[in-house]
């Protein structure tokens, strides 16, 4: 609605007699921090973004690009920031290119990870020509150490922020950072990445009922990826949530994927001190894996999750090679040429020996490391077959002797957090070896440059939530035996399954699409709870796959299974043409009732 009003105001101004030249470049400031700029036929409008620094995740910038021409299509490229100062190892540029047909509007979103940005505003390039005037908006920055909570307009009317601040104020500062929505939930983003920088979201029951299914789905993805959603009022939770309700908590809580949904009919003013402490703890738990104390630099990340065995430079071999080079190019070269009375040959022997030495050093490096790049991935996926949703968390690491020319490629729904140290450790720039980083969202999430450098391990923390149809099909025989069909699309190395009576079954080496009989484990019972998934998220050792196989019966809930895989079908590979891959993944499946 805001964009329509702004565009109508431009049209009315033109029709009232204002000259066309005056509107070749026009700027209109909208309410609540939005911004609209006119570039001839192209009008670019930016929605407001909640202000303030945050600690992790992505910030979504939502834009509308309108082509007022009646016949000509235009290619429009939006870049963030408008001008980069290239002041350190932060984020150099995030861009997206769209083609806007005549007399039409394209809504686009650009998700920017929370890394330092040395610049401001949005740059606009139309048909290859950079426009002189940027779209001036404030860019979010990293640096917030407290949990970040996004509060809807409905919750604001119930004075949630003021009551929470009064209840949770601690010297010298409140224990959470609040962000107030400037738009109704009907205009909220349908992309869960737009909420990934928040640890908690607060909405009302009326807002939940009134929001579009796509927005509700994005909030559900947010919860499944570890977030905390609080609904104020008598909201009817999805049926699948009831099976995952936590016991003995002050606010009704449901474990959903790696996160939690809380629903209460009480007004915030009626919350007890224990209620507020419980809420604060849930927000802190959602932030826990991204707290600065749990952020690694490149060296420690490779120590915790090694992608290459050794990062040491072959000093001894290179040192001996340099000594040999000095001897050959100097005394030996001069001695030989003097004996031959051909000292003039120094003009070509010195460059030739230098070239041979360079080739020898390169050959030594290739011989010791090879040409091929390496990758390692460890991931855990919660596959909710009842809702056809897959939520994955994990780590991916890459090592390449030469800098990959094509960078990394991921989907639009994947959140990536580089392990390059905290904001305060890399704001000076350069220590992580990454250099300026760029992302292009035109075809996919293309981490184009600066993310993987030659001979420097690169580690990414990953969260992803999407709709998926993979499932395990069960067949129970008349004698009570159980068989399954592997519909996960990949081979299963090992599978543990608990039926709805808590009996545990086991099978090994199940080929994709094949059927296998499950062996009943008479000495085991499934005693797991939904809190185990939440605890796995909070504990942060996402790359430790052994904990999912050592104590399987205590992890399994009734009607669930744990499948151990040697591949990761729910994550993109990231780096193409990898020479050596190492993948470990676990699927925690929630099955439909027999």
Summarize the SSE layout with pairings.
Layout: H1 2-15, E1 25-29, E2 35-39, E3 42-46, E4 58-67, E5 74-80, E6 83-84, E7 91-100, E8 104-113, E9 119-120, E10 123-126, E11 129-130, E12 148-151, H2 153-157, H3 160-168, E13 177-180, E14 200-204, H4 205-210, H5 213-224, E15 228-232, E16 253-256, E17 259-264, H6 273-287, H7 298-304, H8 315-340, H9 346-369, E18 374-384, E19 389-399, E20 408-410, E21 414-418, H10 423-426, E22 437-440, E23 445-449, E24 458-467, E25 471-476, E26 482-487, E27 492-498, E28 503-510, E29 515-525, H11 531-539, H12 547-550, H13 552-555, E30 560-565, E31 580-590
Helix pairs in contact: 8-9
Structure overview:
It is a single chain. With 594 residues, the protein is an alpha+beta fold. Among the domains are: 129 residues, Sandwich (Immunoglobulin-like), CATH 2.60.40; 143 residues, Rossmann fold, CATH 3.40.50; 124 residues, no CATH class. 23% of the residues lie in helices and 33% in strands. Strand 28 and strand 29 form a beta hairpin. The longest helix is centred in the middle third of the chain and has 26 residues. 41% of the residues are buried. The N terminus is likely disordered.
Summary keywords:
alpha+beta, Immunoglobulin-like, Rossmann fold, 11-stranded mixed sheet, disordered N terminus
The low-pLDDT segments are 1-32, 423-433
Structural class: alpha+beta
Architecture of the domain at 148-290 in CATH? 3-Layer(aba) Sandwich
* Mean pLDDT value: 85
- Largest sheet, spatial ordering of strands: 21-24-19-18-31-30-27-28-29-26-25
CATH class of the domain at 148-290: Alpha Beta
CATH topology of the domain at 148-290: Rossmann fold
Q: How is the main sheet built? A: 11 strands, mixed
Task: Give Rg in angstroms.
Answer: 29 Å
End-to-end Cα distance: 47 Å
The number of distinct helices, counting runs of at least 4 residues, comes to 13
* Helix share, percent: 10-25%
Looking at the structure, what is the overall shape?
globular
Care to count the β-strands?
Answer: 31
Q: What percent of residues are in strands?
A: 25-35%
